[in-house]
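quick q for whoever's on today - can somebody do inverse folding on this one?? i tried earlier but teh output was garbage lol. tokens:
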């Protein structure tokens, strides 16, 4: 089977159920942003090396994103069941990993932190921002097709950005890199007054 279909000349692409949508549609923008994020996670995995402690869990996240994309590519009126598993444990998976890392690095940060530190830490921050963009596209898709964006998807994606923020901090702490703090989180400022 050839990679090219010769059907993309009109600026449309197929979604589940055989329907074709414009490549700049809300659905395709959302899926494309998750695809971009998944590719960057792949780059992170390569930079970490095969024996790194994060490899198995990052692989799970990549597979989960592929499965989520298969659900987002399926308009709610398709009527056909999706054979791919639903990663309904995603938010809990992220929370457990966040807790594990925070137990090693100490208290959660009260500050906005300037992205950087070292290459892996900075790459985790890039992924975090891509996930946030994907989350914004997800909200837009939910306005257009609320039934295809189930609650577990939104929860997972929200926690995933928190996870990559924590991974960035963990990586800096592991290598003795000092965090460059910018400002207290707003809710912390209110408490200190």
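ok took a stab at it. sequence:
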């Amino acid at each position: 089977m050839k990679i090219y279909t010769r059907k993309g000349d009109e600026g449309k692409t197929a979604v589940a159920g055989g329907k074709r949508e414009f490549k700049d549609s809300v659905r395709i923008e959302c899926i494309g942003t998750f695809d971009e994020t998944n590719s960057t996670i792949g780059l992170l995995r390569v930079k970490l090396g095969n024996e790194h402690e994060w490899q198995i869990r990052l692989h799970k996240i990549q597979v989960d994103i592929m499965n989520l994309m298969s659900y987002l590519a399926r308009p709610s009126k398709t009527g056909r069941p999706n054979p791919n598993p639903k990663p309904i444990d995603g938010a809990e998976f992220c929370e457990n990993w966040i807790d594990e890392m925070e137990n090693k690095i100490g208290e959660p940060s009260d500050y906005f932190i300037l992205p950087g530190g070292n290459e892996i830490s900075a790459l985790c921050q890039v992924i975090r921002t891509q996930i946030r963009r994907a989350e914004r596209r997800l909200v837009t898709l939910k306005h257009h097709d609320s039934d295809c964006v189930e609650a577990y998807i939104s929860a997972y994606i929200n926690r995933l950005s928190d996870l990559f923020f924590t991974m960035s901090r963990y990586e800096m702490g592991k290598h003795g890199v000092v965090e460059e703090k910018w400002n207290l989180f707003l809710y912390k400022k209110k408490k200190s007054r």
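fwiw The domain at 8-78+86-192 is CATH 1.20.1200.10 (Hypothetical Protein Ta1238; Chain: A;). also The beta strands are 12-14, 20-22, 111-113, 181-184. so keep that in mind when u check it
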